[in-house]
Every structure is written in structure tokens, then in C-alpha cells.
Please model this.
Amino acid sequence: MQKSAMKAWWESSYMAGGNAAYIEEIYEAYLENPQDVEPQWRDIFDQLPRLEGVEIETNHSDVRELFKKMAQLGPLGRTSAPATANASDAKQVKVLQLINAYRFRGHEQANLDPLDLWKQERVRDLELSHHELTEQDFDSVFSVGSYAVGKETMPLGELFKSLNRTYCSSIGAEYMHITNTEQKRWLQQRIESVQAKPEFSRDSKISILKGLIAADGMEKYLGSKFPGAKRFSLEGGDALIPMLKSLISHAGVNGAKEVVIGMAHRGRLNVLVNVLGKNPSVLFDEFSGKHDESLSSGDVKYHAGYSSDFATPGGDLHLALAFNPSHLEIVNPVVIGSVRARLDRRQCNDGSTVLPITIHGDSAIAGQGVVQETFNMSQTRGFSVGGTVRIVINNQVGFTTSNKEDTRSTQYCTDIAKMVQAPIFHVNADDPEAVIFVTQLALDYRNKFKRDVMIDLVCYRRHGHNEADTPDATQPLMYKKIKKHPVPRELYAQQLLAENTISQHEIDKLIADYRSALDHGACVVEEWRPMTEHSVDWSPYIGQEWTVPYDASLSVEQIKELGNKVCSYPENVKLQARVAKLYQDRISMISGEKPLDWGCAEILAYASIVEQGSRIRFTGQDSGRGTFFHRHAVIHNQTDASTYMPLQHMSDKQGPIEIYDSVLSEEAVLAFEYGYATAEPGALTIWEAQFGDFANGAQVVIDQFLSSGEQKWGRLCGLTLLLPHGYEGQGPEHSSARLERFLQLCADHNMQVCVPSTPAQVYNMIRRQVVRPMRRPLIVMSPKSLLRHSLAVSSLEELAEGVFHNVIGEIDEIDAKQVKRVVMCSGKVYYDLLEQRRKDEQTDVAIIRIEQLYPFPHVDIEKALADYQHVKDWVWCQEEPQNQGAWYCMQHNFWASIPEGAKLTYAGREASASPAVGYISVHNQQQKTLVENALTINQGTK
Ligand code: AMP
Model:
């Protein structure tokens, strides 16, 4: 807008008179987002007096102030206004902009790095001159707008000092990226009202000092007793100990009953002993090589979890530190899943009773994609837990890499948290009072707004990656500084001495007392309490083998009753035509008119489980409907798009069931479900992949938790994975769930790998997973085309049997004595073989299905094969290429199953780098050939 036009506008009635409130509102909207206002208003506001590069934060009182001043000023360029009034009013605007600049960018000049190595760029917005102010203005009094220091006006000098103290001392508060005004105001109120430096009582100070003494004392003790042994020392980040203790205590006061912590190896031993109260003598024994005999493989001590209770002024609460492997960051969704299970058990929807704390490394939080996945889940229906307190132990180096140009592309390692608009508090770990202040603030924010919050504990690493390392080889300057830098305990003790809070004698005594407690091997955590507050009993499941007897049978009448309930929905729920047909068909199946298909049997299994009072949690990318349009557990009302889940309306006494379409992630979601299932033995927890190969993205969870968590850490887990698998010509990506990878991980009866081939089998397999008191992962190669295969059907009586058959013998009337070849197989290929054999009216080949590949059912197979002991020609038939599927991993079991002297040959695709071909014609030819090879005696097999 030209100046003359602006002048004309200004002189118009809008700006001059009583429309100020209206304009304020538009201006507020403009400040939030200039694109939100009419272009005509945007042009005008673009020309209001303000400084380049400084955003004026949206704030009603600031705006009102601005407009009041402008209204007093009169029309722009009015020469009759007194020069002094003009000048000071213009300065008032600039003072508000200065405040705003500190809120936005103060953290960039804060004193955050204990080593003072950070190269901070000059931030001109924080300089008076940038706002056309000078020290000469220090005595002039200005309105401070919304600056929440408890005064309406302040001399500029005092304000400037206050802003520096609040935003540029030991805390760098980043919160202006939050768009929610209430949250921003709340944070400003909390930070500015105490100028980011509240008064601490003497008791609180001593308690902080004790935490630092413990942190330092523990590491020194281990260092001198076990020199050179790996302990991934916390030293440099000592403030973590008083920080965690204060956080837990504050959580207890605010109603938390359980706290679940996830952390990597750095500082873990210290946290175990100084926060969770693990007995130091047990740790020392571990250093000396003693170990828990009950675990088959066990794990290194710095991966260990621990559970205890902790006394807080609000009552005792339960603490759990999750076990976790070296794979950084992966434990975080596990912890959050565990918290969700505990919240569900407590019927707590707002996260108030269970607090997750996740502790990250600075390089890992910026580097690992699972962090983003976990943030993305944080506010979703299926995965939210009312916010997580996230702490970064930012020791400024990841293994041997500290150059920012190598570690990340963001300003701070915590920038990822901005994706959910979490407030981020950077804090200098050498100022423990600042650490405690932001910790309590972070928890209060989480509790009030139910959102994630981040604390960046800026510290250093006194030793190398481990204690045998020589870090100055790669970080010479950093370590020169570290060598001379006093430990946090010393610094804080000096501070307290200088303030006369404590005497040297008292300090020496505290240090000596801690050391003596370690010498006696006694628990060093005053708040430690024996465990009574945890909310679930695992003892019924401990030590149970997969052969433990169970009775999962329900009568046909009971199944019919369940079926009628699960096919009912209110009249006002209008089903989509195909879904209505599917529900109609289900009613016919339940009445016995039609044989049951897969979807119906699966739904009946869920119905029976919730009816018995157990919980079901089911997530996956398309779980409500089912990737292949077969499930429709969640129905979408065509009238108003509302949803209805018949499984939630079975009876008053039923167990809860939740089915969520998950975020489009595998790694974090599977880790979350693993966490859920390891915390909730009573529930059926299922994760379904859209296609089986999607599980590839979650391999770390499968390798490091699911398959080995029990052997490493004694943690049972009954999680079920449904992985659609089958060669139907969909190409390399949607054919294989990588059966071979699961089988290769099988040992010690660690998990079950099943390939059910009938609706009755899936019904009984799902029921078995809950009714049998064994909690081990169940990996299911689940079907795609079999969902609608005319032969893949079952009767109600087959469901009512209540047994999952690990092996299914020959079903056709074939005289065993005439059989010259036995073909063993699993999954969908069975039907290809059966159809071909029937078509050819062949009677000399028997076909046996192995429905559970692991644990291999030797006894059942022996029974199924008893009639074929005369047969010398045995075949394993599979759809997968030879280097994949069950052939290589299970061959020893197949050999063990066949009569002595018999030969075993392979019928399947040739070895291949890719799981499947991409061309349907080649696929069809391969499928035809492998079936022919399996059925044609004396030729074709390898
Ligand atoms: P937590 O609530 O995770 O601290 O667990 C409390 C106690 O329950 C542990 O000390 C274990 O004895 C037992 N426990 C918890 N989770 C499992 C699990 N997944 N498998 C076996 N025992 C468990």
C-alpha cells in the first residue's frame, strides 16, 4: 500500500475510533498467520512499525497496547503530534518486540554448555540496538505487555536484565513454536514469574546435593573396584539422578501410581542403584561374573531392567525400568506401550496414574527414525498415554562423533520434538537447580496438557564411550576441557557453601555416608520400598510350556449365541452393500446353513474371548476392516460415517476390546504392542501387518525383543502377529512374510510359528493363545486368497472341538497302503495340491499339513504319519523359493519325521534373491510346476 493510501485509510473511521477491538482481533489473526486475513488487511499490517526478522507474538494485551498507542498517535504522519510522545510510543512497540524476541530466541544465547564449547551465533534480535533502543533508555518506564513478571511496567534496564536472566541463563526455553495460546501463556506464566530461577528450600538443596553425591560416588566406586570394566558411566550427566528422583517424587504427589522408564546403556547402572534401589552388592556380584541362573541366555548388566516401589509425599508408587537392547531409541515405544497397558488396567483414560519417562542420547534422538514414529503416535487414539516426559542426556558426543556437521542437520538434537509442538527445555546440567526447575515444569505441563515434553540435559561425558576408551584421540579439545572441569557435585557443593546452606563438614559426612553404604552393599535409596504397588500377577504364566493342558472348547450352541450377538447392530446403523452381504452371509454360517469362512471364524474367536471377560487389543494398518475386506469388525455407518463395533456390545460382563487402524508405521507400532503385551498377560494383543512383508520395517523388534526377550530378561510376551503370506502373483513385495526369518530365530521354544489353513484352525489357534496359560509370541502366516477359497471352510462342530491341530493328516479317502509318496506342506499351497490331485484322481500320494512349524510338533506328526511307514518317497512342498520358506530351517525336523532310509526331496521354487517374481505369467508357471513336481512320482523333484 502506498503511504498516501495508508494515510487515507488511517484517517478513516476504522482505525481512529471505536473499532479498535475489531481490528485487534484481525491483527491477532494476522500475527498467527498473515495468510489467514484478507489481503487488504494483510497489506496494512505489513506496514505497521516493527522490525525485520522479529515476529510479534500474538497476544491480546500486546495488540491492544499497540493499538491504543497508535490511536493516541493519531493518523500516521500527523505532524501535529508532539515529537516526544511519538518517539516514546514507538519505543513502547519496540520494547514489546524485544520481549517477544527473547521469548523466541533467548535460548540461542543461554548459557547451556557446561564446557562452554558451543559456538553460539550472535543473535541481533536480542540486542537493544536492533530494536532501536539504547542504554540511555534504561531508566524509561515501559509497559511490559504480557511479560509475566508480576508488574505491568518496568524501567527498560530492569526489564532487559530480567529478560536475560529468564531466557539466557542456564535454561533455554523453546516453546514459541506452540500454536495453542493457552499452553504458551501457561508456560510464560511459569517461567517468567520466577525469572526461571525459583527459590529452593534448604532441604531441597541438600536433597539435590545428595543426588549428585550418589551419582558421582557410585561411578567412582565402580571405577576403583572394577577398573577398566565397561559401565557406561553417567559422569558429566550426574544431574540425571536428582532430576529423576525429583520427577518421580513430583509425579507421586500429582497422583501417579506407576512410573515406567526407558533408557539406553549410558548411566543405567547409576539409575538402577541410585533411583530404583537395586542392591549395590547384586551389581558388584554381576561385575564379578555372577549371574541369574534362571535365564537361559541372560544379558549384559547395562541392559538390565528393574522393578521396585518408591515412596513419595503422595504415597508409594511403582517404578519399572524397562530392559532394553543396545539398539538405541527402540525401547521408547516399548515403554509407552507398557504404560498404555497399565493405564488400561487402571481404567485411566487421561494418563494421570502412570507416567512414562524416556531417556535419550543426543545423537540417537536426532538419528533414529523410530523417534519420529513414536512422536507421531503420541496423540493418536490407539497409542496416546497422556504425554511422555522425554529427557535427552546430551553429552555432545555419539560414540566418537561430536562434530555437529556430522551428527545432524538441525539446530538442536531435540528439534524433532517440534513436530508435535512439544515444549523443549534446554538446561545446563551443571546448574542442578535449573534442572530440577525445568523437570517439575515439564511434568506439570505433561499432566495439564496431556502432551509430550522434552528436556535437553546439556552435559558432557567424562570418559570415552566406555571406560576403556581413549576419547582424546578423537575429541582432543573437548577432553582437555573435561579433564580440568570440576565434577557437578563439587560445583554445587561450592555453591551451597558460598550461600552458607551447608558446611564443609556436613558435605564430607554426606560423601562418607554414601561410600559406607556402598561398602556395606546396602540399598542407597531412602525412598526405596519393597514391591507391592504393581498391578498384575505373572505367576500363573511363569514356567508354562507350550504342551501345558488347557480346555478351550465351547459348545455349538455357545458359538451360535456368540455369532448372533456379533452379527447384530442397531437399526440406525446402515451398512455398505458389500458389508451388509457379508454380515448376511455370516448369519447363514452361524445358523449352519453355510460352512464358515475365515472372517466369520476369526470374529467368533474374538467374541468368545471378550465374552469370557478377557481384553483384546488389536492394531494394524487396516485392522478394523481387514486389508482384504474380510473382517469388518468395525462397521462404518453409511448414514453419518459413525462407527460401530458389535464386539463391544456382547454383554455387560464382557472384556474390553479395542481395534485401531494404526499409524502407518511398523517399527514403533510393533514395539508399542510388544510393550503392551509384556505388561498385560491377561489380554490378547494382536498386531497385524497390512501385508506380511511390512514386518520387515520392524525387524529390530522381532530380533531383539520378541524372539529373545524371555531368554535374555525373563520377560514373557503373548503378542500375536498376523502376517498375510501367500504366493498369488502379487510380486516380490506382497507375497512373503519372510517365514524363513522367523524360523531361523526359533530355539528354546521361544515362540510359536503357525500356518493355519482352515477357519476352524484360526478360531482355535486364537483361542489357544489366550486360554492356554502360556505367554509366548505367536507368529501367524495368515492368508489372503484363502479368505475366500471354497475349500477353506469349516463347520461349527470343527470350531467346537476346541483344539488347534498342529498337524492335519490326509483328509481324502485314500488307502494308506496304496500311497507311494507323502507330500508335507504348510499353508495355501495345500489347496493347490489337493485340487490338482483330486482333478487327476490320483490315489498314490498323501498330503499332510504341518500347521505349526515351531515348536515342531514331533509327537503329532508321528501320529499323522503312522500309516505311511512303508513309504520311501517323501516330499516337502512349498511356494517360497528354496532359500526361503521352511525348507532350510526346518529340514532337520522333516528328516526326523520320516521313516529311516526314506528319501526327502524338495518341491518348490528355485532359490531366488527376490521373494517372488513380478510377472503373473511366470508366477503361474512356477506354481503349476511346483505342484506337478510334488505330485508326480519319480520325476521333477530335487
Ligand atoms: P513391572 O510392573 O514391569 O515392574 O513388573 C513387576 C514384576 O512383575 C516384575 O518384577 C516381574 O517379576 C513381573 N513381570 C513383569 N512383566 C513380566 C513379564 N513380561 N514376564 C514375566 N514376569 C513379568
In short: The radius of gyration is 34 Å. The mean pLDDT is 91. The chain has five domains: 3-73, 87-169, 202-529, 556-800, 809-935.
